[in-house]
Amino acid sequence: MNYKIYIKQLIIGLLSILVISPGAECLAQNKSKTEICKTNMKIAGKYLEIDPEMAVKYADSCLAMSDSSNISCGLCYYYLGSAYELMSNPRAAADNLEKALKLSKKSDDLTLKAKIFQKLGYVYCLTSNYDKALEYNLKSLKLFKDLDDSTGIADSYHYIAIVYYYLMNFDKALEYNTKAFGLRIKTKDSVGIAMSSNNIAMLMLRDSVDRALEFNESSLAIMESVGNDKNLVHLKVIANALINIGLIKQHLNEPEAAKEYLNRALKVNEKTYDLRSKALIFANLGSQYLTAGNNDKAYSYLSRGLEITAHIDADDLKAVFYNKLADYYISIDDYKNAYALRDKFNQIKDEVFTGAHRNKIQELEFAVEKELSDKKNEILRKEKKTQLVFFVIIFVLILSLGLVLYSRDRTKKKTNKILYAKNTELNEANAAKDKFFTIIAHDLKTPMWWQKNMTELLSQKVDNMSTDRIKEITGILDESAQHSIHLIDNLLQWSRTQTGRIEFLPILLDVNLKAKESIEHLNLDAKSKNVEIINNIENGAKIYADENMINIILRNLISNAVKFSNEGGKVEINYKRNNGFAEISVRDYGVGMAEEELDKLFRIDIHHTSLGTSQEKGTGLGLILCKEFIEMNKGSIHAISQIGEGTEFILSVPVSANAGEQ
């Protein structure tokens, strides 16, 4: 055993004896609670990377003897958060680290504060909260730079790189990993070099398999020379290197070698509490066995890995398992389960990588760039002031010039402030659009993926299928195609409103006639559910609106009403005049909606679509289109609803070119 490690463990053991042995009671009588607390805190720190459960025990004992609002408790909470992170409990880790951060604000210990930010950033990254992860890591980087702490700066670069890797921004990930690697070589941080080597290897894999393998083997060699098989962080570095080499062997189509390295990684992982790495190993072993056609073993590893993700809040890993299990179910011709799992995979993917998250990250990056720019400007301003003082002594005219420069600077600040506000507004609009297109992409992908699998099934197995089975599959294909066509039609109509290419030609319309045309168009859907559509609009009732838009609005609303009506139900269309406007309502007596569902209607940034009473699918776009069109017609739309009593959509439309006239 390395003699330094032996001495370190001996010290920990002696400290433990002093605190928890029977003789400690006598010693404790001569010690204040503060001294005991300090001793326990030191022991917690010594145990942190060797036995986190013992670290938790001693840190908890400190808190039990202290007022939890005491500034000194900040370090206890930091040790607890770090220990829980090592034990794969990100929720407990985040909770304790947030408490540590709160107390650190009262303290002058900037190094501890920077470490708390860093650890919080990593924990939030593990739970797929990437914008928070980046925010905290950037804060830690700023503090470590202010402290001129090279090790801390390198660690912050390392964790920022991890965030960008999970966001699949590989260029940024490589940039920050390279910065971390360079600093760690300067500081001769062996373990840090090994960690950066692992991360760079995965990024190199895209361009050079040989270089990726070289970096991982270098990492293993470094950790072998360090030789500490008790430190959990060291063991995680070794396990990650072995996992990476296993992935490289998969890439090289060497399945047996891949399994060998992954099983070696699993043995190392068993000495740690690292459930995330364990799940990753299971995912890759499951993938290997699935490729080899060993479905039973593949399912065993994949299901065990999915179970792990539920305990560690790892939504990104959960998505990986849903995707791989969908492949498993396809291999055994269970398309129903495959479809359900692929849909779950897409939902998590869309939630984790929404435009809102990307937008928040862009704002953080913009803030960092702005801060760097402000520092440069501050230096320039100081230089200008120095020059101004010097020249004022010689020439009074320079004072006037200085005032002009100052005035220009203030104007520039005001302009920048206006530009920043406009940029924020534009980012918010873009975030809503990004979310909208994410919704559309999801709604298009699912039926198209389903059509692809069904057509593959037909092409491969049609000769062995019964007529009923073929009819069932073609029925599914027809339903899926109709859904896609309806979505694309609505999407094209909406895009025309956004680009200003849709013609707006308002005329006086007979709304009774328009309602009859819409009812006739939807008559087959209504008859299939035995739903009666009642037109209560009086003959000759007029509105002033665009004919095409009103047709689309009425068809969408009546179609929705039929969709959510119960078998044998009814839909009513009503009309009344109100101060120069016509109120047209479409009411069903079906399932109704809760208040929280009503709040989601007409919003482009929230995906809201539900199955009808006969499992009819919707696109989630129809109501957005209705709102766009009704507002173009100088009108408004809202809905009222109660669970079990139905829903009523109410349109307000002008009755003449001059809205408001009787």
Mean pLDDT: 80
Backbone structural class: alpha+beta
Compute the CA-based radius of gyration: 33 Å
Described by strand count, sense and barrel closure, the largest sheet is: 5 strands, mixed
Helix count from the secondary structure assignment:
26
Helical content (DSSP H or I, runs of 4+): over 70%
Q: Per DSSP, what share of the residues sits in E-state strands of 2 or more residues?
A: 5-15%
How are the strands of the largest sheet arranged?
A: 2-4-5-7-6
Describe this structure in words.
By secondary structure, the chain is of the alpha+beta class. The protein is built from 26 helices and seven strands. A hairpin with a 2-residue loop joins strand 4 and strand 5 (581-588). The strands form two sheets. A five-stranded mixed sheet has the order 2-4-5-7-6. It has a two-stranded antiparallel ribbon with strand order 1-3. Helix 11 (190-204) runs parallel beside helix 13 (232-251) and helix 15 runs antiparallel to helix 16.
Output the keywords.
disordered N terminus; globular; 7 strands; two-stranded antiparallel sheet; 662 residues; 26 helices; alpha+beta; five-stranded mixed β-sheet
Care to give the gist of this entry?
This protein has 662 residues and is α+β, with helices and mostly antiparallel strands. The chain has helices at residues 3-20, 24-29, 33-47, 52-65, 73-86, 90-104, 110-126, 130-147, 150-166, 170-187, 190-204, 209-226, 232-251, 255-269, 275-291, 295-311, 315-331, 335-352, 355-394, 397-461, 467-499, 511-521, 523-528, 547-563, 595-598, 622-632; strands at residues 506-510, 532-535, 542-546, 570-578, 581-588, 636-642, 646-654. A five-stranded mixed β-sheet has the order 2-4-5-7-6. Strands 1-3 form a two-stranded antiparallel ribbon.
